[in-house]
Amino acid sequence: MNDIPKPREQLFGDLWEYSTAPQGSEFVQYRDEYGHFIDGEFVDSEEWFDSTNPATEETLARFGVAGEETVDEAVSAARRAFEGPWGSMAASERAKYIFRIGRMIKEKAREFAVLETMDGGKPIRESRDVDIPLVAAHFFHYAGWADKLEYAFPGVDDPEPVGVCGQVIPWNFPLLMLAWKVAPALACGNTVVLKPAETTPLTAMKFAELLQEAGLPDGVVNFVNGAGDTGSTLVGHPDVDKVAFTGSTEVGKIIQKTVAGTDTKLTLELGGKGSNIVFEDAAIDQAIEGIVDGIFFNQGHVCCAGSRLLVEESIHDEVVSKLRHRMSTLRVGDPLDKNTDVGAINSEQQLDKITRLVGVGQDEGCDIHQIDCDLPETGYYFRPTIFTGVTPSHRIAQEEIFGPVLSVMTFRTPSEAVEKANNTPYGLACGIWSDKGSKLFDVAGRLDCGVVWGNTYNQFDPASPFGGYKESGFGREGGRQGLLDYMKHS
Question: For the chain, is the Cβ count within 10 Å smaller at the N or the C terminus?
């Protein structure tokens, strides 16, 4: 085998340490407690829980727990708004409200970014440069569709809203997942009851304050806080016409059973075990950046993360060598530091899961490599990790770890790459790296996944649909396709 070229190193790279570049948080304002947001007002709760900053383990605020009565009040408020002012409003007027929400998010972008980082643990660079701009873009995009629904799908005549939508979102992209669900629902003339994740409800409550400032009619968007029991009550409510859920496959299966046999429409965006497929003709340095972004972005808390790396056998050693070198430059630490690449794990429970599955990988005989860095003494952190010597039968190659952990495997032919990429119960996203467009499109057409990126990874646009196959769910969010399940049509 030819000698593997040593990755180029910056000669001046060890002459200094990075100074901290903290993002101030003194200017952000939020309440000490939030109950729920129903019919345009914040309401108290009889039961409460604390939400903590995963980087410091400090309590940010306390939030209410919605029981059956509270959920029923929220659904009733949404029904009144649907049958009243919102349902009778001209589509062009609804579009103005949606556009106004997008504009106000841009005006408050820095505050939302800081709160998203404090509440979820992701680096401020990601909240500031990715999450919040995409949130605003989704509202702008669907504001444009609100009065053009009859042109969205050829053959779909006289589209009508479905009614009251019950929506449950995860903790990895709290505000972005809210936008993915609320914006198309409002554009189609529906009303919403949404339950944020119990570990990241803060930005949803700040969004509720924004809705008050925007003058959105009461009851159009309602929020109920709580854990799994609250979500179960919402999705099983008899007056909910449409359920949209993003989260784990296990919970998605339960929801599907709950609504089976009813007239409730359902979309599910569930787990994933995405593959990054790197061919020997790829631009390897470019691919390395895509691999790092694919698995270490948001600490690996991404349903479409490229958590499996399939490398053509002839370049395996070179890719792994360059990847390890690139990993050594990652900075793990305070999410509010603008220099931080990998922030805090969202919760202690998720950290325990990641630690347990990494232990499984070691017990199964895989070779582990973790970066050498000091972790903060407080908070929930995990070192970026790669495993080599992995086979498709290993648990770490099959189970969704949802953390900064990459499994590396090899292949010899495009057909073998496709077979290994499809050897998973999931089918959400994959990436392909090749200099040959014909090879890229041929492989993409044989992959059982809803999203395929070519020579890039984790690229999102509100005009592009997103969703999966198999145990990654069904239905699409984003683009014209994201409107379809929020409409009745003949």
Answer: N
